Amino acid sequence: MRTTLPPVPSAEDVYLAERRRRVVRETVAGLPGRCPQLIAALAEDPPPTYRELSERLGMPRGSIGPTRSRCLACLRTLLHAERYP
After folding, report:
1. What would the pLDDT profile of 13-36 be if each residue is shown by its tens digit?
2. Do 78 and 35 contact (CB within 8 A), yes or no?
């Protein structure tokens, strides 16, 4: 029986993956208002419910979705600028 080992990432792949994680963390931390807390909470595994987010962040449940959308749009814009200065 022949087993195949998973591919080992190159040093360059490891470096680039860590750099991407660092850039995302730093960019999320620099977002305005409640965005850093909201994005961090949504990245939890498992993510909290909107009810839990509402209690944790002191936000009305109905504003979490629109706030999330604005935060992600801002994050996307900033990350795009970081990648393509």
Report:
1. 999 999 999 999 999 999 999 999
2. no
